[in-house]
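About this split. The held-out portion is used to measure sequence recovery: a designer receives only the structure tokens and must propose an amino acid at every position. Recovery is the fraction of positions where the proposal matches the reference. Here is one held-out target exactly as it appears in the evaluation file.
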């Protein structure tokens, strides 16, 4: 039931294409919710998906700098 919609830390790391330590760090930090019903740590698919989407990089406009920097020569 729950196991069908959950991942271990290793499986989540493989899906996110990152290391085991990155996933474990996110769990310890509280960014990623995980459960430990026995000896195995499980991450629900919906929790993993929302955590992964929160890591999205937003587009930044490239253009002129907001202020100019003056260089003084001696």
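Reference sequence for scoring:
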């Amino acid at each position: 039931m729950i196991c069908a919609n959950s991942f271990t830390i290793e499986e989540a790391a493989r899906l996110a294409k990152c290391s085991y330590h990155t996933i474990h760090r996110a769990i310890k930090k509280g960014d990623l919710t995980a459960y430990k019903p026995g000896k195995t740590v499980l991450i629900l698919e919906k929790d993993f998906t929302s955590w992964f989407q929160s890591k999205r990089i937003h587009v930044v406009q490239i253009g002129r700098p907001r202020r100019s920097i003056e260089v003084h020569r001696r």
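Annotator remark: Helices lie at 9-16, 20-29, 45-54.
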